[in-house]
Amino acid sequence: MKIFAVLKKYLTIITISLSVLSLFTGCTRKAESQITAENNAAKQIKELQNHLENSGLIDKQRYSIINQLANNYLAQKDYQGLILFLTDWVEKNPKDMYNSYWLLMTAYAYLSTGAEPVAEYYFDKILQQSQDLLIKGNSVHFLCLQNLIQISKTPAHRIKYFNELINLFPDNVNRTELYLRLALEYQNDSMWDQALSTYRLFLEQKDATTIQIAGEPDAYKNARHFVDFYDASKDWTSDPSKNWTFESLPELEEAVKKAIKNYDWKTLDSYKAKVNFFSMSWKQDEMDANAQSEFSMRSFMRGNRIRFNDTLDEASTPNEAYLKTWGWSTYIPVWYLYFRKVNFPIDPDINGNWEWAGIYMGNKL
Fold first, then answer.
1. Were 280 and a residue from 4, 51, 231, 291 both cysteine, which residue would form a disulfide, CB within 3.0 to 4.6 Å?
2. Exposed/middle/buried for 33, CB within 10 Å: 0-12, 13-18, 19+?
């Protein structure tokens, strides 16, 4: 029995040793294979560079060699080698018709290394200094503009690139979406006249009411409100009484409650926003045509006993508030009055005020 135990022990040691040896051999072979691949790639690059020095090459042959060289650098993820090779080529061969493409690859290489500011420089350089070029059916300038919009950090730059996309490639882009995004950039840069005119262009598009824009779920509603609010506010200078906003939420809440308590329907009507005031169920959209039908509070206050909660609803936020009221009708007695903070930076005297923007009919869902 002891002999078997000893044999078993030595067999275990031998098995472990063989496993370690196999692992070491595998790693060695893998390292050797990698070295061989790198040597072959370096050899191929050297051969291609030698071919490139042939003065008898035509443009297409030269393009093919440079493109293959670039792909070899990319296959090895040698971005620095690719950048040095391409920028050196462009500098020494300023008349190469494919330089815009080589600089495009340079910009992508910088993107791959996380150097976005340098990539932005090259994308913009292509637009300013190189003629456009179609590579596999894709415009180099179009690709540059798409990338610049993604990586540029300032509204002024993005405004420039959005305008160039719309003007130079109107058939390659969704103009409805770009008008909206351009208007937002103008607004971010406090260029109010340009923002207003671009919002109008957006609203004129046939699909403005239905388009789904990533990150902008209320695109049509916000644009419509901005334009309509601006148009209505032009009368406030000559007639301040037409301004329906209140400086604070407590002031608006107190005024509305007082008018309800006194059954003063005329005053209550005057508090309603004169832009896109809505009355709808909780499931409707406030931009629906039937949600913005005009009516007077008189029809619902006469003969009814209207009541309201002492405090605003718990769902209220720093920008929106709800006041529960009831007694308006037999069919739908409960109404939530909806108050909204005004977002109108074009006029600092109005921006941040509060308005009574609409009515949600029925209990909250």
1. 291
2. exposed
